[in-house]
Amino acid sequence: MKDEFILHPSSFFFMSLSLYNTLSRQKEKFQPRVPNHVAMYVCGPNLYGPAHIGHALSFITFDTLKRYLKFRGYGVKHVQNFTDIEDRIIETARKQNTTIEALAEKYIARFLNEMDSLNIQRADAYPRATEAIPTIIKMTQGLIEKGMAYEMDGDVYFRVRADEDYGKLSHRSLDEMEAGARVAVDERKMDPMDFALWKASKDGEPAWDSPWGLGRPGWHIECSAMNLEQHGPEIDLHGGGFDVLFPHHENEIAQSESYTGKPFARHWVHNALLHLPGQEKMTRHLGGLVLIPDALTRHSSDAIRAFILGTHYRSPLPWTEEGVEAAERGLERLRAAVRLTPDPSPENFARKIFRRGEATDSPLPSGEGLGVRGDEARERFVVLMDDDLNTAGALGVLYDLAREINRARGEGAIAQDLAPAQATLLELAGVLGLTLQEQKRVVSDDDAEKINALVAERNALRAAKKYADADKVRAQLTEMGIEITDSAQGTTWRKVRE
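Request: output the structure for the sequence above.
Response:
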């Protein structure tokens, strides 16, 4: 993206980004604590299984929000966690006769590659829950000292009734809440709604030493600790799906604010869920999933993004093949608009110069007014995106501008006339994460599974300092036509030849 196209917060002073805040249940002007800088945390995957296209909706939504914040001139520190210790991870590792570490490596490698395939920008940090154990213990101890938690036979629970505004995020009182499927019921708890901060270890489970004996963290405290380590006690924006609003985010805000005594997140942004027709949501518990590699085998990443962004992020979205195919057809109009135009013949170029010299009150011929159209499109795009990230309207702006470009091309506009509007179209498409390039999926779901398993095996060998064995796995991947790249954020791969 060219710097001259970036809209800084001081520009267009009459405009300002408004986002729906789940905490207040209304749209609010987005104001980070530090001017021009956004501390952003988005709940990441639970590493007990592969991600599916429902997860992709959330990650595409917040990738688009981050891209737009950057477009508006903000610096963004984006943190997305990896949950690598939790009940279902332990259960899955046991069933697969593996370790939680190996399971995590397997699904982290797969996840990062799939996010790259969807053109989702990498987060600035991917903390793991197991790396935050000291902070988790410190927070748990601090909550006990404040009278907000209690220990019982090696378990530690948060006292929900000690928190006077518990329920403020989900807007329900304790009397309206019930201990449901994701709230552990334990007769030892002082209140059924009290939730675990620390769990005493069981035979065969991973465990860490603590003031309360060997154990492991509860699910909710993990994100609070990782947030505290990465951002400090206060953040600007916390994101995730509606499905984790309660109890996860409700418990997260309760324990974080009880520990620090400060407001946790200024803005809570939640996306609605993607579902298959006839289902409430797409979930690994119900089956019938559309896995990301499978979707990418049939559709381009641009089509998947356009399909998702064609509906407002707070509206539920049914996944249909017909809908994604329609998005693909629409994208062809955008791709056609940014294709290079051949240079005109000398005769046509001379005629074009002559037409420019004519005095006329008629509309600008061919592409001569496209620069103005591009500026107008950018302003409309900003107005729509400022209104709670109206991506559907923003896509409409792209289609309108593409229609103008294609019409001008049909009237004989030369390349230099089209170029400014084409640049604007590519710029705005990039804010939505659209490449407008022809895309082809070359790796099947089965092949991706094999490749991810080999990448995870290599990472585990490297972690064990068995470098010779790791190099053998890398050579195997190379023979398969796979190029791998190691970075501080993880290992990624791409197919470079058949």
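Residues 366 and 408 are 5 Å apart (CA to CA).
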